[in-house]
Write a structure and sequence with these properties.
Layout (H helix, E strand, L loop, with lengths): L6 H25 L10 H19 L10 H9 L7 H33 L5 H7 L4 H23 L8 H25 L1 H20 L9 H13 L14 H21 L9
Helix pairs in contact: 1-2, 1-4, 1-6, 2-8, 3-4, 3-10, 4-9, 5-6, 7-8, 7-10, 9-10
Length: about 280
């Protein structure tokens, strides 16, 4: 049995692992080749992610667990004074969340490893050109396009990426979406916890994904992007390509900024606000 002092950290680890297993799992099911869900589309992904957030929240709600599963939430609550966590406790939560996200992503790869192989372009450019019926230059262009698409698909299982790469706009999209997340969470749990509840979180994540997620893939959570991106970098995925670390700061820093701003504004607006347990 987990000791009471360690239990909240283990809860953050396991809850975040489940969140990523379900969240990255629905993405893998939708975009990797030869899965039963291939081609299910954006609505399925957004609903899958909403369930992925709600399920661990329902599992760990109450009983001494705080249900953060998100460093942006943990940091925002700490710096606005809306949590009982100490500074060391905050750091412990973040470490547990990152490790949980990494492990959840590894489980997604383990379960879908055959589908990663089916998605990857494993033959060399010369083999592709030799076997192609197209002219050499056309075949080379086709090969490079197919390889880039396959690599982008495999990375997309693990981490977010922009629909159109414009780093400043991408950064602000993450700030705005996470601002709404924290503003709604703090306001909802402060003023109507019985109405809002964990299923309110489901509705909120669904709305954010469908309305604001199309530009960057709506990280909202540094652990959701950084932990799985590390997994992508270290796992032996054949034909995977690079992990796009030049973009990684956006879904990591953007949610932190948005979360802190959202918590500050909500705390100032709603004077009845108390420390939330989510």
């Amino acid at each position: 049995m987990v000791g009471t002092d360690f239990a909240p950290y283990f809860g953050e680890f396991l809850g975040t692992a489940i969140l990523i297993l379900l969240g990255d799992g629905v993405v893998a099911n939708m975009i990797l080749k030869k899965t039963k869900g291939n081609g299910g589309g954006w609505v399925v992904i957004t609903l899958g992610w909403a369930f992925a957030v709600a399920v661990p929240a329902l599992i760990f709600g109450g009983n001494g667990f705080t249900n953060h599963f998100n460093p942006a939430l943990t940091i925002a609550l700490y710096f606005t004074g809306n949590t009982d966590l100490t500074f060391a406790g905050m750091l412990g939560y973040i470490v547990a969340q990152m490790l949980g996200a990494f492990c959840g992503a590894c489980l997604v790869y383990f379960m879908h490893q055959d589908h990663f192989k089916a998605t990857a372009v494993l033959e060399s450019e010369e083999e592709f050109v030799r076997n192609s019926k197209e002219e050499e230059e056309v075949a080379r262009v086709m090969y490079r396009a197919q390889k880039a698409e396959a690599q982008g698909t495999m990375l997309g299982v693990f981490s977010t990426g922009p629909a159109i790469r414009n780093k400043w706009v991408n950064f602000m999209c993450e700030v705005i979406a996470t601002f709404v997340l924290l503003f709604a969470l703090t306001a909802g749990f402060a003023n109507s916890p019985g109405v809002f509840g964990n299923w309110g979180v489901f509705i909120l994540i669904s709305a954010l994904g469908m309305s604001l997620g199309g530009t960057t893939g709506y990280s909202l959570n540094p652990a959701r992007d950084f932990g799985p991106r590390v997994a992508h970098a270290v796992l032996p995925i054949k034909g995977k390509g690079d992990s796009d670390w030049g973009y990684a700061w956006i879904p990591t820093i953007g949610p932190l900024v948005g979360a802190i701003l959202g918590a500050i504004v909500s705390t100032e607006m709603f004077s009845t606000f108390g420390a939330i347990s989510w």
